[in-house]
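Box S1 | Example of a co-folding query
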Amino acid sequence: MNRVTIRVPATTANLGPGFDAFGCALSLYTDVTFEETESGLEITGCDEEFTGPDNLAYTSYCAVLNTMSEEVQGVKIHIDAHIPICRGLGSSAALLVAGAMGANILRGSKLSTQGLLNITNAMEGHPDNLAPAFYGGLTASMVDNGLPVSVSFPLHPDWEFLALVPDFNLATSLARSVLPEQINRADAIYNIAHGALVLKALELGDEKLLRSAMQDKLHQNYRKRLIPDYEKIEALVRTTGAAFCLSGAGPTLLCITQDEKLEQKLAKKLDSITEKHWQLLPLHVDFHGAHVLAAE
Ligand code: HSE
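Box S1 (continued) | Returned holo structure for L-homoserine
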């Protein structure tokens, strides 16, 4: 085999209080094709600025080959990205996962998914997007002795996710730079308790419990000032009964609901409270995670 296409789902990290720990895979995908050649690097399907050797799909591809002590030869990479870039939906994690899986599969699948998660986590710094991108579904992760440990949690089948994706982006580095280095004990306790109850509410399908548990003191309050109209939109969503959080580092905002009419309800009112354009993207949970779409 010298050509493989990997499909990776979008992911929403944090889910409110689960900062750097919780993540869920969603039904929006980036497909990346890797074709080994005799020499050189060619990257197509993305903006010119992402076609160099620092492309994340290529850097993780190389990291996996290095770990396997395999020679990096030439490679053509084609990116067909449907996950919006720098919007808090795991576009970077998707490229890292695709590169890692692509390299592993082209060279005989010597590494396990845990091995690929270890390598990509060392590159990304936190496993909350990577774990659901690899495994699908809802995951919680910790890093123990430098290595990620991720487990899957059950999700009630009736949840629908509605992503509100704005027409501006927000670099994760900026969204992390506004967070305090130290937190107080009350905020830590708040997040531990709320995080545990978010997982139970998602399992039970309990919208009322999710609405109150999906609140946070570690990151959202600091980040919301980077996102125009965050508070107005949050107030609007809360009138509908849906649970609300920032998706990853933002700027996408996320509603979780069982109300099939939520999109209609928000679409009617959103334009009147914000001058930015927010695309409403109804999504389901992706339970499969990253996988091979085609191989020859
Ligand atoms: N947990 C990360 C954050 C997700 O909130 O900064 C973005 O990579």
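The radius of gyration is 19 Å. Residues 13-14, 19-20, 126, 128-129, 172, 175-176, 219, 248-249 surround L-homoserine (CB under 6 Å).
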